[in-house]
């Protein structure tokens, strides 16, 4: 099994957190956003929380609202570096790295 296949084993929140990072920096895929919004009733029931999916993630992980601005700032620097190097910005790598750091 490759790392991609085992990355989420035993970590049900990890992919949601990666998508939260993408949402926080304004880079989430519209289809993913639609899927996440449709999951909100089940997430509310599972986690016994209210709000939108991203608010529930923030509540579960006790994330401070200022983290969104911090992540956007870091992402903007990554975008500038990618542009200078003439490469696509590493969105998946960025969101995975941040998610790993947040979950610990």
Q: Based on DSSP secondary structure assignment, what is the total number of beta strands? A: 0
Percent strand equals under 5%
Order of helices and strands: HHHHHH
The value of Rg in angstroms is 14 Å
State the end-to-end CA separation.
23 Å
Q: Mean pLDDT score, rounded?
A: 93
Structural class: mainly alpha
Number of domains: 1
* Poorly predicted spans: none
Kindly list the characteristics that best describe this protein.
104 residues, mainly alpha, single chain, 71% helix
Commentary on this structure:
- This protein has 104 residues and is mainly α.
- It has one domain (12-103).
- Helix content is 71%, strand content 0%.
- It is built from six helices and no strands.
- The model has no long low-confidence stretch (mean pLDDT 93).
Quick summary:
With 104 residues, the protein is mainly α. It has helices at 3-6, 14-24, 30-47, 53-60, 66-85, 91-103. Helix 2 packs across helix 6.
Secondary structure elements and pairings:
Elements: H1 3-6, H2 14-24, H3 30-47, H4 53-60, H5 66-85, H6 91-103
